[in-house]
Design goal:
The protein is globular and about 50 Å long. By secondary structure, the protein is of the alpha+beta class. The protein folds into 2 domains: 1-50, no CATH class; 52-104, no CATH class. The protein has helices spanning 66-83, 89-98, and strands at residues 6-9, 12-15, 19-22, 25-31, 44-48. Strand 2 (12-15) and strand 3 form a beta hairpin. It has a 3-stranded antiparallel β-sheet with strand order 1-4-5, with no helix packed on it. The N and C termini lie far apart (37 Å).
């Protein structure tokens, strides 16, 4: 991978013969600022460019770790921060509802 490349990040869980679920986002490879020098060279990180709430209606937070809940809440806060100024009316209400923080 090289800096500037656009790729998809598609974590998922599949139960053979039953069901599957996947969350798909587009990400851009970006260089890590001030990386720690190691024998492995320079590092990249993924900057998420897909800004869409993840549907939490089927999430059982009892099955999530604290860091997983924190990650999802931070992602939703960023989605809301960047998209709320661009929306109004019913779309804005939907965005606010779908980006509410999860609690355990």
């Amino acid at each position: 991978m090289k800096s500037g490349m656009l790729t998809s990040n598609e974590p998922g869980l599949y139960r053979p013969g039953k069901w599957g679920i996947r969350i798909e986002s587009l990400v851009i490879n970006r260089p890590v600022e001030n990386p720690e020098e190691t024998e492995f060279g320079k590092f990249l990180y993924f900057e998420t460019v897909t800004l869409c709430p993840i549907d939490t209606r089927l999430i059982d937070t009892k099955l999530m770790t604290g860091s997983e809940i924190e990650w999802l809440n931070q992602y939703h806060a960023e989605v809301r921060r960047r998209l709320e100024p661009l929306t109004e009316g019913a779309a804005k209400a939907w965005l606010i509802e779908r980006t509410e923080p999860l609690v355990r």
